[in-house]
């Protein structure tokens, strides 16, 4: 069987886009580190904040940074970089006409960063509309990072029951961050994708391999195959649709 690519679904590797990589050298170091640790594809999910800039402006900046990076990386063995965005949820997002343009290139998959607050029926309905009316594959970015804001809030679990994909940060499955709960989600098929959410080479460095090793140890290699299959389908590298996993 052909080996599926290892995909890092959440990275801030593009230089000068957000609070991630500060320059092209740092971006290249991050990509080299990813390659070294077995990552084949990095989805570049720079932050997009509706309040700060238009979609046109964001995409123009992203294009410029991508070409700059590719130029500097010429001839180097680094992971393939696929442009995307980490779109911060905002009021009225479900009506946003330009939203499709922020999906991961070549897909209808949108990495969505929910509010760091207690979610309400408003968020539930808006995400539901993105799934059912707009027919987007919504990827909830680092779902685990919102747990502390929800406590007994039913909307936290209700959102996860929509036909969304759940992305967990690599660091969060490690024991230091009480990873057991999130490992269990992968084991039960309720979490689907891993991302490093790498921002730099120090405090938030690329770290997918550690998390994969642990997931493989706790859940067996088939858990990694499932993650890789879901990712490959999402990017159109394998047959079927990733959203089918939840149906
Ligand atoms: Fe992020």
Written account of the structure:
- The protein is α/β, with parallel strands linked by helices.
- It has one domain: Alpha-Beta Barrel (TIM Barrel), CATH 3.20.20.
- Helices cover 36% and strands 16% of the residues.
- The chain has 8 helices and 7 strands; from the N terminus they run βαβαββαβααβαβαα.
- A 7-stranded parallel β-sheet has the order 1-2-3-4-5-6-7.
- Strand 4, helix 3 (121-132) and strand 5 (137-140) form a beta-alpha-beta unit.
- Helix 7 packs across helix 8.
- The longest helix is centred in the N-terminal third of the chain and has 18 residues, at 55-72.
- It is globular and about 50 Å long.
- Fe (ii) ion is lined by residues 10, 12, 86, 197.
- Residues 10, 12, 86, 197 line the site of fe (ii) ion (FE2).
What is the topology?
Elements: E1 7-11, H1 24-36, E2 41-48, H2 55-72, E3 80-88, E4 109-113, H3 121-132, E5 137-140, H4 147-150, H5 154-161, E6 165-169, H6 180-187, E7 193-195, H7 208-219, H8 221-234
Parallel strand pairs: 1-2, 2-3, 3-4, 4-5, 5-6, 6-7
Helix pairs in contact: 7-8
Fe (ii) ion binds next to loops.
Quick summary:
With 247 residues, the chain is of the alpha/beta class. The chain has eight helices and seven strands, in the order E-H-E-H-E-E-H-E-H-H-E-H-E-H-H.
Quaternary arrangement of the chains shown? single chain
How far from one another are the termini?
Answer: 26 Å
Using the CA coordinates, give the radius of gyration. 17 Å
- Class from helix and strand fractions: alpha/beta
Number of helices: 8
Instruction: Calculate the mean pLDDT score and round it.
Output: 93
